[in-house]
Amino acid sequence: MHTAKFALVFIAACAISTGAMAQKIYKCGASYSQIPCPDGVALEASDARTNAQKSDADKSTKNQAKQGQALEKERLTDEARARAADQAQVKAQEKGKLADTKLAPKKKSKEPDLFTAKPGPAPKN
């Protein structure tokens, strides 16, 4: 959050301190370069907007950044609520399982550990 603001201020300070003058740009096929190339076309990269247009664009950018921050805050709040609801549901399910095991009937007699085979009754002739 603060990193983006810092970066924006830093970029603006660098642009102001260097003068941000228009430079020649060369279109070299499908790419652009500041260095002339064979068969390159020189393009002018000046900003033709008025000061009023620039300030309007800056205001719009700041407005959009505020809206984006508000939406991010809302999203984080919604995610936190959903996470809390999921955790509550898991705890409720775990409590339900514990209650089910407590309510289950207990065995009255203990099963033998080993099985022993015994012969059956003798057959009658």
Task: Tell me the layout of helices and strands.
Blueprint: H1 2-18, E1 24-28, E2 31-33, E3 41-44, H2 51-103
Antiparallel strand pairs: 1-2, 1-3
Question: Can you tell me about this structure?
Answer:
- This protein has a domain at 23-98.
- It is 56% helix and 10% strand.
- The protein is built from two helices and three strands; from the N terminus they run αβββα.
- The chain has helices spanning 2-18, 51-103; strands at residues 24-28, 31-33, 41-44.
- The chain has a three-stranded antiparallel β-sheet with strand order 2-1-3, with no helix packed on it.
- The termini are far apart.
The description of the largest β-sheet is:
3 strands, antiparallel
Assign an overall shape.
elongated
The fraction of residues in strands falls at 5-15%
Structural class by secondary-structure content? mainly alpha
Share of helix among residues?
A: 55-70%
**Widest beta sheet: strand line-up:** 2-1-3
- Tell me the Rg in angstroms: 38 Å
Number of helices: 2
Round the mean pLDDT to the nearest integer and report it: 80
Low-confidence stretches: none
What's the N-to-C terminus distance? 96 Å
Total beta-strand segments: 3
| Helix and strand element order | HEEEH
Keywords:
125 residues, mainly alpha, 3-stranded antiparallel sheet, 10% strand
Short description:
By secondary structure, the protein is mainly alpha-helical. It has helices at residues 2-18, 51-103; strands at residues 24-28, 31-33, 41-44.
